[in-house]
Amino acid sequence: MIDRINCFTYGKLPPLLSYNLSKQHLRNSFPVKPIICPICPNGCKMYLPDDKATDCTHCSAARYKEGSTTEPAKLMQQLPLKEQLALLVSDKKTREMLECRSKRPTKENVMTDIFDGKLYNNVKHLFENELVIGLGLYTDNYQQFKSSKHSMTIVHLTVLNINPKHRMENQLMLQVGILPRPNKPQDMTFFKPLLSDLEQLCKSGIIVETEVGSLRVHAHLLFCGGDILAVAKMAGHSSHTHYHGYRFCLIRGEFMLNHMTFPPKPTSRPHKIESFKKQKTDEDKTKNKERGQSNPSIFAYLPTLHGATFFPNNLMHLLSGVGKQLWRIIIGEYGKEGNPLYLPPRTCREFGELIADSHKLSVSFAGDCSDIYFHSGFY
């Protein structure tokens, strides 16, 4: 069949490849070898090399196929971060894009990117070399089909060295893995391969062979974002329904109208960076749990961890939640007189066009980047 199609399209289209040649072409164009990991059949956890359990500790599902003691019931693939970064660095074109961070112009008191902020400047000594790469990590649930309720969790990274206009393009983002369901991940074992790569990248780095010789490349994670639940797990923080579920400040929540709320208080103190690290004494562990910090963050060992703001909420989740109410205020649905947020229709129209035009900047699979002015009835 392939030969017949190729005869028909000869000289007009590139020839179709056979299944085996297609696989070989894919391997050659993206030579990153995946890590094959045994996991719980229900998606609760990943079995690490030193885990000898035969049943899932969360759902009791069998680790191995029926009648076998060695063949896993379910496997998943993860793409190593360090190999994906090596692929970017080895290519001359993308390597030049990675130098944008070190060559970008800066102006005093003007912030256009993460590298203009105070938090980056506090760790700037880690980025002295041109090929030290800044990374942003995101986790998010998404549905494969609009009519399906089955969702999966994607773990992906953006390379912050690349110009903001291009860093969110598909070919420049790094996908580590998609965590399967039906159950939500019950622990952080799925992140162990990624954490191992991050540790190596920030400490010793990796050697990448290029046309100009061997280059040592380091990388540092500057933040980890996602929705409220995902970010809380990354931070080791308790649920947002906990009385100390507000991870930025030590505010005790108040249960109002069937919701946990955190009214601002002038005496509230921010969570210190030590809260996210491993506590040495039982007394400190108890205090931390009382303050809502149930476990150390999985990123506690990173030199770039700076506290609660290391774990920002994904912008698209804010837009789809609080943003709906804000938009109603902005367009004057609750009145224009004395409304400090009210914007005239012409400005709202321009605002909607800008949102629609920024769809490439989204790092979330849960959200809508359509024209909010034109489709305001759907918000």
Provide a brief overview of the structure.
Pfam families: Transposase_21. This protein has helices at about 1-10, 20-30, 80-90, 90-100, 100-105, 120, 190-205, 230-235, 280-290, 315-320, 320-330, 345-355; strands at about 35-40, 75-80, 130-145, 150-160, 175-180, 205-210, 215-225, 255, 260.
Which key features would you list for this structure?
single chain, alpha+beta, five-stranded mixed sheet, two-stranded antiparallel sheet, 27% helix, globular
Helicity level:
25-40%
Overall, the morphology is globular
End-to-end separation: 49 Å
Mean pLDDT: 84
Number of strands: 9
Helix count from the secondary structure assignment: 12
Largest sheet: 5 strands, mixed
Rounded to an integer in angstroms, the radius of gyration calculated over CA atoms is 24 Å
Percentage of β-strand residues: 15-25%
Strand order of the largest sheet: 5-4-3-7-6
Helices and strands, in order, run as HHEEHHHHEEEHEEHEEHHHH
How many domains, in number, for the residues? 4
Instruction: State the secondary-structure class.
Output: alpha+beta
InterPro entries: Transposase_21
Biased composition (Basic and acidic residues): 271-292
Region (Disordered): 263-295
Pfam families: Transposase_21 (PF02992)
